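Progress note, project year one: complex with nicotinamide-adenine-dinucleotide.
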Amino acid sequence: MVVGEIAEQVDLLIAGGGPGGYAAAIRGAQLGRSVLLVDRDGETGLGGACLHVGCIPSKSLIEVADTIEELKHWRKAGLSVQGTRFELSEWQERRKTVVDGLASGIRQLLRNAGVTVLAGELRLTRPDRAVVETATGQAQFFDFEHLVLATGSRASALRDLPRDGVHVLDSTDALNLDVLPASVVVVGGGYIGVELGTAFSKLGVQVTIVEAEQRLLPAIDENLVRPVSARLSELGASILTHSEVIGFDGETVKVSTPQGETGVSADKVVVAVGRTPNTDDIGLDLAGIVTLATGLLDVAPNRSLTNKIAAIGDITPGPALAHKATAEALVAVAAQTGQQVRFDPLAIPVVIFSDPQIASAGLSQAEAQAQGLDATATIVPLSTSGRAALAGGRSGSMQMVVDRLTRVVVGVHIVGPVASELIAEGVVAIEMGATAQDLASCIRPHPTFSEQFSEVAHLAEGFPVNVMEARRGKSA
Ligand code: NAD
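Model obtained:
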């Protein structure tokens, strides 16, 4: 202990004000805890990367790009719109209004709950003590009864292509641009590469996506990704797979491809090669906590690391998604308040705001079989949907994975319009242990995309209404 170090007692301390941290703070207050939340940016940081530089701004840009593209699509139905113009600087104003509004909503929620918010960097100094350093260099020590670490992640960097914020950007820089570049090379064809690449393409930017693996979105089922790759190509984007960027001189990006080295001219390079957990500079060693080789924290099912410290969100194993962090927060705080709980979801939905959208929940057929289930996979193409025909016959499909023995639905995988919304029904079905028959007997409104659930469930049960034998998707 540093001589003269005086520590304040705090009941529940939260590190990080993102979707995990602020939810933990609110739940803690609801459970009668006295809560102090520390975020590097204080109240202005509430909402975290998701609200300020991630999910919300990117989805806003994607919506604008989709709207412009939709207008083109409806030309064939007689729509004529004169003078469509898009100013990125004006979009930035709108983005700021939306983000500020949501951040102030979180501020209000925390104030109402009686949570105190402090600006500063939190580091552990021992298993029950943390120091918070403020921007002015002052240090405040806290002895905590419990601590929830929700410090999130940052964009991973490439050693040979360091970010300069001008020519070499990360996704935050890319979303902060005021003027659209004429051409962009996106390094990494994962979530961000595909989402940003699609939006930029729709806004008229010449996009090249360079992906190290053999295809885009290598972690996602190939059948779901195929329509997305096709659409990107249709939009004029170039996709270089099995390739790596080896240099950039400010004008030309040097790419190593299976066919040899090639040059791609680009105004900007956006690096989107994954995220690094923020666990390296928070004093974990002083609390006796060891990270995994990935930098992630090996939490117990109730998210605890010690009897005083829990961790949630992007610093724990599993997908780095806001909704996972929020769900973990509620478990972690309940456990620290004495409840017997565990974070054990059957389905954490994964959604990619590509074109068409991809959404997935639960097990793939292969994963189910690996768990010892005799699982079938039933697919209906979107062409069976009247609603899809109304929207111009979009490409896509819905797949349902069912345990043959119990008929319980264990996975739902969608590619198509509004997949991001539809997947919630799949999540409920899986979590509630619904059978294919349960889903088949539910009446869904017509004409909507949700009717695909009826169709795929009827087909899984062997009695499809709108699918002819010859047009059946794979049902194995
Ligand atoms: P990612 O892990 O989804 O994709 C990174 C891609 O980069 C991978 O396909 C990988 O093979 C490739 N790659 C790695 N090194 C490379 C190299 N040197 N050259 C070329 N390709 C390389 O990561 P991301 O796209 O940066 O997104 C980060 C995380 O943010 C995601 O995993 C996700 O959790 C989250 N996110 C979620 C959403 C959403 O929910 N819709 C959207 C954006 C981001």
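Residues 470-476 have pLDDT under 50 and may be disordered.
The radius of gyration is 24 Å.
No further modelling is planned for this target in the current period.
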